[in-house]
Amino acid sequence: MKRIGIGIGMVVAAGVVCGCGAGADAPMTSSPPAARSASSSAANLAPAPAGRPTSFAAWKADFRARAVAAGIRADVFDAAFAGVTVDEEVVRLDGRQAEFTKPIWEYLDGAASSDRVATGRARAAQLKPTLDAIEARFGVDQEVVVAIWGMESNFGSFRGSMPVIRSLATLAYEGRRRGFAEEQLMAALAILQAGDAQPSRLVGSWAGAMGHTQFMPTSFLDFAVDFTGDGRRDIWGEDPTDALASTANYLRAKGWTRGQPWGVEVRVPAGFDFSQADQANRQPVAAWRARGLTRVDGSALPDHGPAAILAPAGSRGPAFAIYGNFFVIKTYNNATSYAMGVGHLGDRIAGAGPVAGSWPRHERELSRTEKIEMQERLTARGFDTGARDGVIGPNTISAIRAYQQAKGMTPDGFATASLLQTMR
User: Fold this and answer.
1) Spatial contact of 64 and 40, defined as CB atoms under 8 Å apart
2) What does the pLDDT read at residue 98?
3) CA 207/CA 96 separation, integer angstroms
4) Band of pLDDT at residue 54, cut at 50, 70 and 90
5) DSSP assignment of 235-250, as one string?
6) Distance (Å, whole) CA 237 – CA 97
7) Which pTM value belongs to this model?
8) Where are the beta strands (DSSP E) in 117-215?
9) 111: which of 50, 80, 341, 391 fits an S-S bond (Cβ 3.0–4.6 Å)?
């Protein structure tokens, strides 16, 4: 599953993937991680009939027949579904649309809070022999693995307690993405059939994300490993070893390059063309050096392959050169805010300091209603945003930049309340 990416501008709320709590120490994800190619067993599932089922019982009977035909034993299915009914809380959570979200600086404040950094450093020290062994086998820097652990479950504190079969069955019956939920449900049944977990132990978030690093079931089948050698891939227990190794295995498969940063904070020269600050605009580092970009301390921009420039708060906030590992993190969760959070938290755990540049904290985050209004006003002026959905994605950012250029403003694509006011 891939979440819609957030481009330059204020970003998604730091919701709780497992529905366990909120606050500075809560997980920093809002839906299941995106690391999710389909497993072969889930891919064997025949598609659901067209139209909505008449009842949960009718859907269950049809799904049972298709699951058994795809290789799930009838006794495994029946044991997993014993007493399963629709979970109305899952229905509510699936249908919610947040009116207010956090700006990037508040998101990063939470992602790399002093408590989270301290806990991350303590857990990294405590588990150093294990993390060293995981890094040696998979070639993934241990601080990014620990950072994902911190972002997804606050280092195991919020792993989720909702029965995964019930949650996914509810979403498959009447969720917004029924086909995806059925694929995940089929994978969850395959996990049970393989003996990696019992139904009572198969718990997670309302959306089906599981364990210390919140794997979806298809990701578990594709990437989970038994690093402890006890014969089970256990991402749910108190010992995080298998979950951390599985996360490293995932990142390796997606192209992580050991020893290279996700990004570095940069200093942009006066007159820099902020229309070039776009994740899709990856250029050789030599090209950015030629434009006058340096590290924030004035030293030469390091060359770790093609880089893009990211200015998540527009021209008045910090800017970053982002490299290949940034985009690897985005395969785990496609939100730019999340990738920055993981990268920054990992840097802090490894001993780095906070972001050096100043954020425009005086800017007010737009509500979802205001974002829709901005999209409508831009489109009415001939700057088409595509959807009017309250999501400031690439199309809306491009429309904002075109509007800013037409008005003689700096084309940074940053959606703010003051910019909306110019459109009214």
Assistant:
1) no
2) 76
3) 13
4) confident
5) SSSS--HHHHHHHHHH
6) 32
7) 0.89
8) 162-163, 203-204
9) 341
